[in-house]
Amino acid sequence: MNFYTIESNCPNDNSDEILGIVRLLTYHQQNIVWLLSDLDIVPKYFGDYHPTGKKEPRQLVYNFTSKIQKEGFIAASFTELQDLLVETASIRRGVFLCVPDSTVLGDFYAHVEPQNIDAFQHECAFHEVRVLDDLIYIFSKYDLDMNGVFEQDETS
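Given the sequence above, the corresponding structure tokens read:
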């Protein structure tokens, strides 16, 4: 397992950074799902008055948060996770696990601060991202180039 730590440039506006990490980890992955758990989301603030008229409140962040509170986790495709992060200003805390979409989940809940901090919280996980304030921890079964591309073996 490979482990990486990134300090967020701006913990109050880290959704773009997390989206970039999720894109990196999803690159070349097929038939996967993201499990989200232990999530504290701050939605984007659109203000009380929008100059073009009434702005409808966006419900996506609220719906994700409600479902996680009821069920303990949410399974989302990359597209659903991307849509959520576009509507989000920041993630204060959260766990994102990338698993095969055929994974049987049952009762599942991942913690940002688990008892065993050096292991995946699901035995089928390819990647795990933990966000805690300004720190982003990435666990992966693969060697990653944090510039956005999987590292290539220098002999190939």
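The helical segments are 15-26, 60-71, 78-86. Try to locate this feature in the token string yourself.
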